[in-house]
Specification:
Length: about 260
């Protein structure tokens, strides 16, 4: 089983979104300088003997050209989404959209589900957790729910495979994990390989390493359920110990640069 990391560009946003209260006014410094940071957007190709699996589909290539609503783009800008579209990113690691046998959506936020249109009208299975699909439709189609869901990303003719379980065997050595917190139906994965170290895809349970290692909270706007997210981190740490696994964070640019050299 081979793993390939796809480069889907950089999101630019206030660091406080990822690290709650990282920059805050205090008595001795009443107007500290905010930090505008870069976050990696990546997808994964899991080249498994049973199937070529695509993990997430990134941002829509026209995110910066008005496809993303202006208030969302102001907060989370993704100016290079067009240069790093799914086809280009797959091509960089030697694949094309036609090679993909199945898709797993960790969740359906706009920086993760924007390439699903490639699979519109095909029979390529698209895996998502039931709670994510329910929450995504509620959010995109009603005033309730969260902001970061666009119906135009996921409301396609897709071969949805709805996961109800907390742990789901996708293929030999690839287990999907329900990790609620950032969203209600977030999925991660435990990938066990014969000759290489095991990998735990934590994704947006932890945007950055400190969210996981130091258990620094993400900003409130990135947490549907902060208590559930803490439990998901604890669950992952248990698995990490048991499998001696490498943990992959959701948007950590520094880690992403390392992962590109090989996973
Ligand atoms: Zn994300």
């Amino acid at each position: 089983m081979e793993l390939h990391v796809l480069d889907r560009g950089r999101i630019h946003a206030d660091l406080n979104f990822a690290l709650d209260g990282e920059v805050a006014a205090v008595h001795s410094d009443r107007s500290p300088e905010l930090e505008y940071a870069e976050f990696a957007v990546w997808n994964l190709v899991i080249d498994h003997p049973e199937a070529t699996i695509l993990w997430d589909t990134g941002s829509h290539p026209e995110a910066a050209e008005g496809y993303w609503p202006a208030p969302l783009f102001e907060a989370f800008a993704h100016p290079d989404a067009g240069e790093h579209d799914l086809e280009t990113a797959l091509d960089e690691v030697g694949y094309s959209v036609d090679d993909i046998d199945c898709v797993v959506q960790s969740h359906l936020h706009l920086d993760h589900a924007g390439g699903l249109y490639h699979f519109d009208g095909t029979d390529v299975p698209v895996y998502a957790h039931r709670r994510e699909l329910e929450h995504a439709y509620l959010s995109a189609k009603s005033p309730a729910g969260g902001d970061a869901y666009l119906a135009s990303d996921f409301d396609h003719d897709l071969n949805w495979q709805v996961i109800d379980q907390n742990r789901y065997h996708l293929a030999d050595g690839v287990e999907l994990l329900h990790l609620p917190g950032h969203t209600p139906g977030l999925l991660g994965a435990l990938i066990e390989r014969e000759h290489d170290e095991s990998v735990l895809v934590a994704g947006d349970v932890a945007f950055l390493e400190p969210n996981y290692e130091a258990e620094r909270s993400m900003g409130a706007s990135l947490l549907y359920d902060s208590r559930a997210n803490e439990e998901s981190v604890a669950f992952l740490k248990d698995l990490q110990k048991r499998y001696d696994a490498r943990v992959i964070y959701g948007h950590d640019l520094e880690q992403f640069e390392q992962l590109r050299d090989g996973l």
